[in-house]
Amino acid sequence: MPLDVHIIECLEDNYAYLLRCANSGRTVIVDTPDPDKILEEAGKIGWDIDEIWNTHHHWDHAGGNDKIREATGAKVVAAASEADKIGHVDRMVSHGDYLRVGENEAEVLDVGGHTSGHVAFYFGGADTVFTGDTLFNLGCGRMFEGDPEQFLTSLQRLKHLPGATSVYCGHEYTVKNGEFALTVDPDNTLLQAYVQMAKEKRARNEPTVPSTIRAERGANPFLRWDDPVLRSRLNMDEARDAEVFAELRRRKDAF
Ligand SMILES: [Zn+2]
User: Fold this and answer.
1) 88 is catalytic
2) 136-186: pLDDT as tens digits
3) How far is CA 69 from the centre of its chain?
4) Which residues bind Zn(2+) 1 (predicted)?
5) Of 39, 66, 229, 240, which is most buried with the most CB atoms under 10 A?
6) pLDDT of residue 24
């Protein structure tokens, strides 16, 4: 199905995404970091926002909801478990629910760990997923509310999506994430090439999104907890997957 994605760079390093069904014209904004910028961009390309979908409750993802709602009459869709924190949610969703952008169907995936009720939006027919602050290019979000088991389950869910799936995440952190990734997986040639490409894109002021699930599986240490070389480098050959994840997260927090 035809799903158009318009990337909007917001604030320091946030991304919001305008999605539009090319046939019906139905339009959704994924996250609302900078409502003025989003309304301006939507106006420029002539897309009328029908719905707001929030990946999680943080202010730089849901803080612009009210302004966009007031300007457009858009309905707000968010995880039931985060609705109280977000405020004024018209439709509450949870894992396994389906949403639509015109003819495009999206499955709601529970990907808690950064926040406990974080969700991703997976368009199987359009090979596209919006991962918010759960999975970044070459990284993952900080573990503010969840625990390692929960975060690992969420990352497993994303890792098992088809390799060709385009990944649109919530922040432009790729180069910094890549520098960390090279400290734990320095001999990974896929990672080396990925970081080089990301640096070149950023030097041209281009976004590094979207990535793909395949590229992340090959290079993102937070999807490689079961890789023997990475485990050996951490001296964690026999550790449980969640312990490897937790160690990677701990090292990244201190990086
Ligand atoms: Zn966040």
Assistant:
1) no
2) 999 999 999 999 999 999 999 999 999 999 999 999 999 999 999 999 999
3) 23
4) 56, 58, 114, 133
5) 39
6) 94
